[in-house]
Amino acid sequence: MIRLHVSPAVFQTTRFSDGPLPLVELVGALMRLRSPAARRHPPEAVRPLFDLFSDKGEVPDFLLSRRTEIGAALEELATTPVSRLRCELMSAFQGRPRAAWLHGLASGERSARAVLTRCVEAGYRALVEPNWTDIAATAHTDLAHRGRILLREGLAKAIASLPSTIGHHGQTVDVDNPVDRGVPVEHGLIFAPSCLLPGTLVITGGRGEPVTVVYPAPLAPVRGRVGRSDSLSALLGTRRAAVLRAAAVPRGTTELAAQAGISLSSASEHASALRNAGLIMTTRAGRKVLHTATELADSLLTACAPPLPVAVAASSRPAWGGR
């Protein structure tokens, strides 16, 4: 059990992520390919990434970016300090990485860093990007559900709605893990859904970074997504539906645009149309304008959302955490 000790001040800032994390989804895809039941062979360009898995099936934290946009995640990986790479590789492999290129990575060799960034991008393009639309839709449906609970019933209820591998008692959050240890949370706590990761994951990260708890929100079977999952888009149009889903939690126009994957002007236009229809309300907080879904929109989102996938029982899936 990983026990996260959260101070009252930090607990008040606890939040959910803005969307799925591309590199965490990549790690989930790689874990599936490492499974004995896997029938698919990974592309040649991706195979060096399997060297990053320890005997316990863990990867160094530097591979687990919290960025929700792949370009930013790759940039973060390309600029990670050598000291952090070395420290996390030595910790993961007890000072003895098996692959020669990992020794080069720990030593700061540019060629090894190029291997890392090239393989990670190739892995994302081959294993995650083809399913990204479904991954993003599932994650945002899950986040909208948690966001409504958070807004109406509070943080404790939102945490209680997560899979049973995550528990909450006072100022402590417990995450199932084979090793018992406590982790202080000094710079924030974030919860993020993952569609491809088979279990719960704790990313402790570097100095000054928040702790991130990733929980499973598995993709529903294709048959389960046909019909109801597309009904909101059929009613409002794909882009307007995406803007409304993004407004399930208060967001500025720029944030709506980023979440929906559209231009700022388009987001503003759709927000105006939704406001005129009574589906969002717009308020001003200082210089920032915030758009929030109304109760009418919440009812519409709930009616159009597919049932949340039921997480696999804790005993049948691994739970693992960063160091």
From TrEMBL:
Pfam families xrefs: DUF5937 (PF19361)
Membrane-spanning residues: none
CDD domains the record matches: HTH_ARSR
Highest taxon above the source species: Bacteria
InterPro entries linked: ArsR-like_HTH, DUF5937, Metal_resp_trans_reg, WH-like_DNA-bd_sf, WH_DNA-bd_sf
Domain DUF5937 residue range list: 74-217
Entry-linked PANTHER family: ARSENICAL RESISTANCE OPERON REPRESSOR ARSR-RELATED, HTH-TYPE TRANSCRIPTIONAL REGULATOR KMTR
Protein name stated in the entry: DUF5937 domain-containing protein
Species: Allokutzneria multivorans
